[in-house]
Structures are given as C-alpha cells and as structure tokens.
Amino acid sequence: MARRIDGDLAQARRAFFEWGGAPVGQVPSTILQSWRRCRQLGLDAVRKPSIEPVDARRLREMRERHEKLWRLARAEIELLSHEAASTDSIVILTDADGWILDAEGNLGFLDKAGRVALMPGACWHESQVGTNAIGTAIHEQQGVEVRGGEHYLPAHRILSCSAAPVFEPYGQLVGVLDISGESSVSHAHAMGLVRLAVANIEHRYFEKGLPDCELLRVHRDPALLGTAREGLLAFRDGRLVAANRSGLDLFGLDRGELGRASYESLFAESVSRLHDEGMLQTRGGDMLAGHVDAPEKPRRARGGAPIQVTASARHDSAGRPIFDSRLDAELQRALRVLDAGMAVLVNGETGSGKEVFARELHRRGSRAGKPFVAVNCAALPESLIESELFGYEDGAFTGARKQGNPGLMRQADGGVLFLDEIGDMPLSLQPRLLRVLQERELTPLGGGKPVKLDFALVCATHCDLEEAIGEGRFRADLYYRISHHGVHLDALREHADLPALIAELWARIGRGKTLADDAMARLVGYDWPGNLRQLVSCLRTMDALGEPGVPLTERDLPGYLQKAPRGARLAPAADGGDAPAPGAMPVAGTDLDALAEAAMRAALKACDGNVSRAARRLGVSRSTLYRRLGKDVLQ
Ligand SMILES: Nc1ncnc2c1ncn2[C@@H]1O[C@H](COP(=O)(O)OP(=O)(O)OP(=O)(O)O)[C@@H](O)[C@H]1O
C-alpha cells in the first residue's frame, strides 16, 4: 500500500517537483532550502536511491579512524538503543561526512532501514541521497528533523528521522547522532533525546581537560555544575579557543567566535575570583558559579595517536580525586606492579573509590594515553557478558550486529581493562577469561583469526573472593591470575583522619562556602555506609543548598544525618582494640568538640600553620579557629 503523505506536504511536493514552484510556508524552510540545494546539484527526485555501502574492511577502517567519537558516544548509543528497541526505531552514529559508523536498536526496523541502505557503511550526505536528517543536519550545522515525504527521494518516505551534529571542543563538526523510525509513528521526543545525548557526548570531550588551556566550568545555577549542562569555556593565552554549546549560549556566541573572543570581552573580573570564591561576573552583569580546571600539561609523545578517552561515562568533574599519603603510596606500589605486566586486584566496600583508584592508576601509568575500558560484570546481563567482553564476528548468533563487535577486550588494546565486580563473573565464563588472560590472545565468538591482546588488567571486588572460592563460586586459578597484587581500600569509618579528608573535600566542593562547627561535627561523627560516594554526594547537596557568606549548619544536612545519633561513628579504641562495626553505638570518650578540633588541627598542619588558609580549607572563619584552638596553638 502506498504511504499516505499528508495533504499539505503532498501539495508542496507537487508544486516543487512537478511544477518547479516554491511552496514557501507549506514545508519548513530548512526542508525547502535543502530541496533547492538538491535540485541545483542535479539530483533526480524520482530515481531509486543507489547507495552502495562500503565493504566490511573499509567500514572497520572508518570506525578506527573515528574511534574517539565512537567511544565517547558509546554510552549514549547503548542507552538510546534500548529506548529505540521498544519504539520501533534505531540510533545511528555517522562521521562528519554522513558515513554511518553504527546503527543499533529495534531489529525489525534495522532490517527495514537496511532495505533503503540506512545501515553502517552507507553515506547519507545530502549530495548523495538528497534531503535527510543526517545530511541536512551536517549542512545546517544544527539539529534537523525530516519526516516522511519531506525526504527528497520518495523511497525514503518510510522514515522519520531526527539528527543533531556533534562538535568537538574546538568547534569542528565530527559526526551526527540520529534517531530514525517509522514515519507512520509519532516520535515526539526523538529530537529532545538526540540533543541531550549530543550534549553528553560533547561534554565528554572535555573530560580530561584540554592541553595548555584553562578550563572554566560555569553556570548560573550551581546545581547544574558537574552535569552536561554546565558551560565549558577553555582559554589559551587569554583567548577563548574551545567551548561547549552551553558555554557559548551563556554569552550568546556561536562557534565562529572560537579562537577570536577574548577573556576580557566575556568576563568583568579576573579568573582568580573563580579560583578563590567559585564565582565570576560576566561583562553582561550575570553572576556565574563554577570552578577552574588547571591547564592540562601536554602529553609526552608515546608513539601513535594518543587516545585520550575512556569507555565509561563516569567522571567526577566536581573535583579531582584526593589521595592521602597512604593511598598515594598504594598507588605507587600498584603502578610498579601494573607496569611490570601483572594484575592488580582492588578490594573495598561499595563507594570506597575502587574505580577512581583504577582510573588514577591508568592516568599515572605508562598507558595513560590509551583507552581505559571499564566493564561492570555485575551490571551486564549474564547473557551479554560473553559477547560484549570477547566480541563476535559477523552473524555469530541471532541478534548479533551485522558487522560483528570487536568486544571490550579489544577496545582496551594498549590501555587498561578494568573488570569491576569481578566476583560476579559467571562461573561458566571464568575458564574462557582465564585462557584469554594467560594466552593474551582472543578468538571472537563465531570464529575468525585469533587476535593478540595487549592491556593492563585491574579488577575490583567488594566481596571476599577467597570465600567465593571456598563456596565454589569463583575459580582459584582465575583468582591467582587476577590478584598478583592486592590493594585494600578502607571504609570511610575506618579512615585514619576523617576530619582532614572531609575538610579537604569541602574545600574543593564547597567553593568558598562555610560549614558551621555543628555541621562539621555531625559529618565527622557519621558512619558513612556508602563511603566516599555518599560523602561526596552529601557535600555536593550541601553546596547546592548553601548561600555564599551564610555558614551551613547541621540543619542543612541531609535528613539521614540529622536523624543519626550524634557521634554515631566510633573512634577506634585507644587500646588498639577492634574497630567498631557499622552503626555501632557511641562509646564514652567520643566527643564532638574533640572531633571538630581534630579537624581544625589537621587543616592547620596541612596548611603549615597558616590560619587564613586553614580556615578557608575548613570552611570556617578565622575567628572560629582562634576561638576553638586558642591563640597559643595558632602562634
Ligand atoms: N579518592 C577519591 N577522592 C575523591 N572522591 C572520591 C575518591 N574515590 C571515590 N570518590 C567519590 O566516590 C564515588 C564512588 O567512587 P567509585 O565509583 O570509585 O567507588 P567504587 O568503590 O568503585 O564503588 P562500587 O563498588 O559501588 O562500584 C566517586 O564518583 C567519587 O565521587
């Protein structure tokens, strides 16, 4: 049955394609302009499209060339493709010329789209296939929707597509993300989803900072800092050289201003105010909250193009991680082991920082410019672990992607593979993992030539693997292969100097806001079952709620902290006895004043006795320090 084209559109098509008219107002102007361009190019509007996708080898080459884009977009493609699977649509990633690198989503619609060559390896540039969301978005350099009969070629009427271009930080268009579905179905939210996903991808390009740039992370609303909606503005020698969409929008700039606009033309005061107070006034009089990432040092050349990306979307942009001297020494030791080709196993409770530790190993190690691929064995469905981890060849099993999947192990090539929650690796897959780790070679599912692997291995677990071995849930031989060196991360309640840690975290997160003594004492006295994750998120919430200049008191703490019994956390017994269990009752001698004072002394020591700096670091006033510690101590 011929598809119905809605009345106005049918009329507009006739006016344009049959009578050579200009149906202004009957189709969106973007579509009409695109039709005109296509006609000027001499594209035949009645011909059948003849799109020849490239062969598998060339597609692989293309994907390798655009590996950074592909990798940074991975999390979004996965998320959207789940969404798409249930709405009869697919998610597509192309390069800057409209070559499709990846298409995932509803299998039925993938097939249907394949019949009009909307598939990996095909080129959907406007000059090839006429008006379409991908090609037209590339031309317009902005998001475009093309529905049904708005496509130039009649064969594409079956499609309804929403596409938005992806820009790297310096303003270069690097690709397009698109959602395509049946034109007969309404895809009301597709454009919004694509825009959000693109904002996330573009944000991820800034994750590791930019070489030689001071990166300002700012927003009018402090609660949006650390999210993809924060404005990112990178300055080199006083000139704005890179920015994300939100950053440009704050000043009404377009990408053409990159490399031209000066810092002075945008901001009314020195960047040091952002450093010191977390605030900065624009020339337009707006007050922005935020912080500055120091310039990234240029990487040492390590041969080959460095890939400064990670496979994981997780990144803590509200502050760099903190490693005290004990952890720093642990990092150094683990690094030596890792660089010698042996595996590191990190153990600790949930939220204690195992992944952050592993990322830091990657950042400091000899594989820093190469990928960091994090795989959460507990989060991947058991049925997917094998194919995702080890990869597969074309058509290895029903539902496999047509072009196969290299697998996460191959994606980690040259870099670090982080297997999180390794204790949840299904027993049935453990022999295969062991074999791959021993032989450093992988044969993908469905056959194909064995591939050499080169990655450093870091695993993490919150459970006792030796116990799991005893219960037959984990293989002993695999355990020995992944635990050449073990690192234990303390739970927060066991931390040797919690006051100093909280003070240091607050100094970074609180951006100049002050914590009243009662709030500090409650934080120090709490048990923190969610460890660093819970503490960081608690401090971020307090920061978002706080007003500059007004100290945050215990009433500003999250409800669970206000309800917790005062001094719930126990100090280890002075006689060296057992540390108390989580949630244990207070013991005599746990004195909140003493805890707060300990925090002050620690900060003072860390600041070499400089009272102003220590007060700033703790988020208390200088007079509080004088009052609590007494003049003698401070002299
Ligand atoms: N060294 C650190 N400095 C500052 N913040 C940290 C540090 N380590 C962890 N965090 C905070 O805690 C959060 C959780 O850390 P991470 O994901 O590494 O924990 P995990 O032990 O791997 O947790 P899980 O076992 O649940 O996966 C981080 O996102 C970060 O906000």
What secondary-structure arrangement, pairings included, does this model have?
Layout: H1 7-18, H2 29-40, H3 56-65, H4 67-85, E1 89-95, E2 100-105, H5 107-115, H6 126-129, H7 133-140, E3 144-147, E4 159-167, E5 173-182, H8 190-204, E6 214-219, E7 231-236, E8 239-243, H9 245-250, H10 263-266, H11 272-277, E9 279-281, E10 287-293, H12 325-339, E11 344-347, H13 354-364, E12 372-376, H14 382-390, H15 408-411, E13 416-420, H16 430-439, E14 441-442, E15 451-452, E16 456-461, H17 465-470, H18 476-482, E17 485-488, H19 498-509, H20 517-525, H21 531-545, H22 559-563, H23 592-606, H24 611-618, H25 622-634
Parallel strand pairs: 11-16, 11-17, 12-13, 13-16
Antiparallel strand pairs: 1-2, 1-5, 3-4, 4-5, 6-7, 6-10, 7-8, 9-10, 14-15
Helix pairs in contact: 4-8, 12-13, 19-21, 19-23, 20-23, 23-24, 23-25, 24-25
Residues 316, 321-323, 348, 350-356, 420, 460, 462, 532-533, 536 line the site of adenosine-5'-triphosphate.
